[in-house]
Amino acid sequence: MKWTEGLDKLSIFLYLAISLFAVANIYSVDEGLGTKQFIFFCISLFIGLIIFIMRTKFFENFASIIYVFGVLLLIGLFPFGTEILGQKNWYKFGGFTMQPVEFAKIGVSLMLANYVSGPDFNLRIRKSLLTTLAIIGIPAVVVLMIPDVGSLLVFTAFFIALFREGLNGWVFGVGAILAAVFLVALAIDPLYLIIGIALIYGVVILMNYYKIHWHVLSIAGIAGSFLILCGIAYGSPKALEKMPKHQRERIEVLYKGEKAFRDTSGYNLLYSKTAIGSGGFFGKGYKEGSVTQGKFVPEQETDYIFCTVGEEWGFFGASMLVIFYAVFIGRIYYLSERQKSVFNRVFGYCFASILLMHFAINLGMVMGLFPTVGIPLPYFSYGGSSLLAFSIMTFIFFKLNYTDRNSLV
Q1: Which of 61, 113, 357, 358 has the fewest Cβ atoms surrounding its Cβ within 10 A?
Q2: What is residue 179's predicted lDDT score, i.e. its pLDDT?
Q3: d(CA 121, CA 191)
Q4: How far apart are CA 2 and CA 197, in angstroms?
């Protein structure tokens, strides 16, 4: 049997293609940073080789240790972290910086996979549900205290993996309703929203009047949920007012447009849209983007790297990149579903869901569909810790899939 049997060549090709295309785009923005990113990419390949040499059981046996180490790295930010761009979520060692939250996601993925694959796991049992929530919640609370809102949003990706393992879908429905009420309350008068909520409740109750078991618990549940939604509707504008100015403006940009904040929080978005729109269908050409070369977009080598793709490679290049990401993420989900091992499947779902969240939020942020929250584009945004962390997760899954495909069990 050839040693290459079991390697998924499509996903490996997409990983290499996206990563190398990223190096080219970062090099276009800043040649020095592009060279560093290529060095980080080579280091990632070397680490990937080490992962392939390791025994697969290592990741199961040491999942709890890796998880605890990741949480300790997050906690260590409070006394030892360095503040960059208003957030104290970095370690600085000389000229090298590291963002531990990226590596903490690896620990959570491994720990969640290890626990869910246990013989006594059942999400319908309260102990199992609370334990899984604690595995996700402990690092999430630390991230919230930093605070790093963007990374906190990414932690919701783990619920997609849990949904595959039996988590009730009502969790996503409730979350979507709460988010919708919060966002709508910022756009219209809360009083009108509360009236609308009351009308919806009234219609639903009338349509299901005879199906509802009218006892104390059901009445309390209906009344409680109504009061919670009304509380969110009433409190959302007040909560927005108490946010720091730069965070408040990032949300208000979605409603008032980036031109209303062109000198502050809307500046990045304004020039990002300008760069993407000016690329046309085939783009202006490599290193020919006037917005990119003029350094008009701050952080255009990190969080806003996609605007460089849009300007220099146009709609065609940007679409190809989106297709590559979509196929890659979809392929990880597909391979995860085919795993014989529950541990492999859960880790794969965690990995693919993290990629999906990063990809969706970053592109939404760059195009003005989502507030700026500092989420890098996987493999693409400049940053050694981000590229290394995503590459480690990638090669762990490649190794798990390789072992699974060659297993006789």
Answers
A1: 61
A2: 85
A3: 45
A4: 62
In angstroms, the CA 69 to CA 71 distance is 5
**Cα dihedral 68, 70, 73, 75 sign:** negative
- Is the Cα dihedral 372, 376, 382, 384 positive or negative? positive
DSSP for 186-216 reads TTS-HHHHHHHHHHHHHHHHHHTTTTS--SH
Cα–Cα distance measured from residue 98 to residue 290, given in angstroms and rounded to the nearest whole number: 31
Question: What angle (nearest 5°) sits at the alpha carbon of residue 350, between those of residues 348 and 353?
Answer: 105
Report pTM: 0.91
Give the DSSP letter string of 333-375. HHHHHT-SSHHHHHHHHHHHHHHHHHHHHHHHHHTTSS-----
Residue 58 CB contacts under 8 Å (≥ 6 apart), including other chains: none
Residue 409: its pLDDT value, please?
58
pLDDT tens track for 352-401? 999 999 999 999 988 888 888 878 999 999 988 899 999 999 999 999 99
Q: Which residues pair with 91 in a beta bridge?
A: 98
Average pLDDT of the chain, as a whole number: 88
What is the four-CA torsion angle of 48, 49, 52, 55, rounded to 10 degrees? Answer: -100
